[in-house]
Write a structure and sequence with these properties.
50% helix, 195 residues, alpha/beta, 9 helices
Length: 195
């Protein structure tokens, strides 16, 4: 059973995720928190495997601080950011903190729980829009430039091309005739090279 904690300040979002979770018998929402202060306490008390995390909690970007604290104190807990916000600075900060996935709230509800399953098996799940943000230059740096020493292998370039074409990780695995974990491994390498 995959234990999930939802951290979001919109009760309707929490209710919606609870309703969809009933269609995924291997996932259990063990609790929720609606602010940054109670989120870390809930992780300690409820011991989830995965935290679904919104960036904006109330009028602040408290979700970023929550992610930082969870990754520092509970290294085994995976974080799936689920947000309406995809600003470049948020994406970069959360990636550097080490979140394991980042989806936008425009995703179909079932995709969130498929992402949870992937994270539970050591996958990484970043939506195409978020990957685009990660690859964009920031502060004068070119993603994948020589300053990062990034050179992509042919396999990584093939994967990036398919990802940019909108294919899911499973579809990429089928197209490249490699395992899903192979796709996830290539993605981790690419993310590392992109900084």
């Amino acid at each position: 059973m995959i234990r999930v904690l939802v951290v979001d300040d919109h009760p309707l979002m929490i209710s919606g995720l609870r309703a969809v979770a009933q269609e995924f018998p291997d996932c259990e929402i063990v609790g929720d928190a609606q602010d940054a202060a109670s989120a870390v306490e809930a992780v300690e008390t409820l011991q989830p495997d995965i935290v679904i995390l919104e960036i904006r909690l109330g009028k602040s970007n408290g979700g970023i601080d929550v992610a930082r604290q969870i990754k520092k104190q509970f290294t085994h807990v995976k974080i799936l950011v689920l947000s309406a916000y995809d600003m470049h600075i948020y994406v970069r900060d959360l990636y550097r903190i080490g979140v394991d996935g980042y989806l936008l709230k425009t995703e179909p509800p079932g995709a969130v729980f498929e992402a949870i399953r992937s994270l539970a098996h050591d996958g990484v799940v970043f939506s195409r829009e978020i990957m685009t943000r990660l690859a964009m230059p920031m502060g004068g740096e070119q993603a994948g430039s020589a300053s990062h020493g990034a050179e992509f292998t042919d396999s990584e370039l093939d994967l990036l091309q398919l990802l940019a074409g909108g294919l899911t990780n499973n579809e990429i695995a089928q197209r490249l005739t490699i395992s899903r974990s192979g796709v996830d491994g290539h993605l981790k390498n690419v993310f590392g090279k992109l900084g």
